[in-house]
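Pilot study result, target chain (96 residues):
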Amino acid sequence: MNDLLRNLLDKLRRGWKLAEEVHRHQATDRLEWETRELENIFSLLVLGSFVGIQAPPMYISLELLPEMEKELTLMANRACTAQDPLADLFSMFDVL
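Predicted structure:
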């Protein structure tokens, strides 16, 4: 009888740990998605003049440009490969 209860408790613990791991993974995925979306919003706020949105004052944009290095590099790469679909495909796979 004790072995049966121990086995049951052990299975419940393993099930609980599995459920906890799944929920942590989902929470991490949601945080990563939210971080990417916040970066996109930040980019639109700083570089909004490129897409027709009113931009913040120039001195604020200039102070924020170092934070935008990754986005500016990505934008320059996309502009260079805009007329070459094969290069765009390779840029998605991060092939050098």
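One observation from the pilot: Residues 2-46 form the longest helix (45 residues). A full batch analysis is planned for the follow-on phase.
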